[in-house]
Amino acid sequence: MSRTLPFVPFVAVVAVVCAGCGASRSSPSGAPLFTRNMPALAGQEKTCAGPRHKTFDLDVVQTKGIALGMGLTFAAWTYDGRLPGPTIETCEGDTVTIRLHNDGTVSHGLDTHAFRIDSRKYGPTAPGTTLTITSVVDTPGVYMYHCAAGPVTDLHIKSGLHGAMIVYPRTPLRPARSLVVVEDAVYGRPDAHGFIPGTDPAMAQKNDEAFSMFNGRLDNGPIDVKPGDLIRIYFVNVGPGVSSMHVIGDIFDRVSLGTTWIHDLQTDGVPAGSGAILEFRIPGPGVFVLVDHDKLAYVPYGLALKFQTG
Q1: In this structure, which topology does domain 10-38+176-186+202-309 adopt according to CATH?
Q2: Hey, do 10-38+176-186+202-309 and 44-168 end up sharing a CATH topology, with the first three levels equal?
Q3: DSSP for 190-223?
Q4: Distance between CA 167 and CA 209 in Å, rounded?
């Protein structure tokens, strides 16, 4: 497998866990959590109290460069100029309309795994045009959405056109501090200045990522929590491969890949193109690290989210 970053021994994980402690992502007690590239959620209560017909507008933006951290910049194709795209929050039973405005130079589309519609409606749509899709969302869960561009769909997804969509249940969930985490990857090599000019089709076809990331960054700071906090992760795995999600120092209280909860798991496997709700409780003072256990080699490069008590 190709590597764009120098080898770092696994003992450097300790340094990664402690690095950036002065740049933690702090929220008031009980508030939703966030990372450098992922804003806090509106949440179930506010979303489900809103209108039953929700409309979302997304713009395709083919960027000239998005900062990833660690001195790297990537010429990503994005929704709304963000990597990953904006989180779409909906509630069970809502009628959802998504309008995709293609401001790019090639055809793009949008496929959300939360819809039950004719697959031909996902596009693609030509540059300068708008694609509109509508469906009732009737199955609670966390879903991936991504570009739909015919035979080049895989390349477009791996170039950055993906995000998370949440369908909250109408029945209230137990109180928790929530966060969206999207695991994705970059398939390209940086030049001498750390610039990755785009996705290498040969690397993408072989699922040969240069590195994987959480929420489009290699430099997420620690997240401040308190002992006893229940943490709820709305997780999407863009790929490649199965994400083996694990919290170093803790056990998942419960997880769900759909509507059924499984309790007391040490590691949960989430296939590429799928999502899961992962819940764990902060057991006491310390640092607890969310990782993909199948990609521990990338932890020194930032594939880790640190939850730390004050």
Answers
A1: Immunoglobulin-like (2.60.40)
A2: yes
A3: --TTSEE-S--HHHHHTT--SEEEETTBS-PPPE
A4: 30
Q: What end-to-end distance do the CA atoms of the chain give, in Å? A: 39
pLDDT-derived band at 148 (thresholds 50, 70, 90) equals: very high
Stated pTM of the model: 0.92
Q: What is the architecture of the domain spanning 44-168?
A: Sandwich (2.60)
Q: Which of 186, 149, 143 is nearest to 166 (CA)?
A: 143
Per-residue confidence (pLDDT) for residue 5, from 0 to 100 = 56
Q: Is a pLDDT exceeding 60 seen at residue 86?
A: yes
pLDDT of 118: 98
How crowded is the C-beta side of 244, counted as CA atoms within 13 Å? 7
CA–CA distances in Å: residue 255 to residues 75, 168, 204, 305: 35, 15, 30, 18
Of the candidates 34, 82, 17, 40, the one whose C-alpha atom is nearest the C-alpha of residue 304 is 17
> pLDDT tens digits, residue range 209-249?
999 999 999 999 999 999 999 999 999 999 999 999 999 99
* Domain boundaries, given as residue ranges, for the chain: 10-38+176-186+202-309, 44-168
Q: Is the peptide bond before 240 cis (omega within 30 degrees of 0)?
A: yes
Query: CA triplet 181, 266, 88: central angle to 5 degrees?
Result: 20
Contact of 77 with 107, CB cutoff 8 Å: no
Contact status, residue 302 vs residue 4, Cβ threshold 8 Å = no
Q: What are phi and psi of 157, to 5 degrees?
A: -60, -45
How many C-beta atoms surround the C-beta of residue 275 within 10 A?
25
Question: Looking at residue 50, what is its pLDDT?
Answer: 97
The beta-strand segments (E) located in 113-191 are 130-136, 141-146, 162-168, 177-186
